[in-house]
Amino acid sequence: MSTAIITPWAAVGDMSWRQHGACAVSTNPDLWFPEGNHKSERLAKVVCHNCPVKIPCLRWALNNKEKWGVWGGTTERERRRMQKSIRDQI
């Protein structure tokens, strides 16, 4: 069973919130897709911390089961744990 957390900016395919994100000004995709580089992962989380669209970003990643990169201040592993926790509560 799949559980989705739907909110206005988090519909499948709707990524209009991205233009308001702290990541919108970053020109280095390695920061958001660190592939095991924990230093880049931590830096991305710092940028995400005060981002005005952190929650919609995280919701989008959860709704779309995003498997790569830092989204909403979380890593792939953290999002998998969140999804499991949500499933376990149902």
UniProtKB/TrEMBL annotation:
Q: Which HAMAP family match?
A: WhiB
State the free-text cofactor note. Binds 1 [4Fe-4S] cluster per subunit. Following nitrosylation of the [4Fe-4S] cluster binds 1 [4Fe-8(NO)] cluster per subunit.
The family assignment reads: Belongs to the WhiB family.
Binding annotation for [4Fe-4S] cluster? C23, C48, C51, C57
Its function, per the record, reads: Acts as a transcriptional regulator. Probably redox-responsive. The apo- but not holo-form probably binds DNA.
PROSITE patterns per the UniProt record, alphabetical: 4FE4S_WBL
- Pfam families in the record, alphabetically? Whib
- Signal sequence: where? none
Which species does the entry assign this protein to? Longimycelium tulufanense
Where do the TM regions start and end? Answer: none
- What happens to this protein after translation, modification-wise? The Fe-S cluster can be nitrosylated by nitric oxide (NO).
Gene Ontology MF term list: 4 iron, 4 sulfur cluster binding; dinitrosyl-iron complex binding; DNA binding; metal ion binding; protein-disulfide reductase [NAD(P)H] activity
Q: Where in the cell is it found?
A: Cytoplasm
Give the CC-aspect GO terms.
Answer: cytoplasm
Q: Which GO terms describe its biological process?
A: cell redox homeostasis; negative regulation of DNA-templated transcription
Protein name per UniProt: Transcriptional regulator WhiB
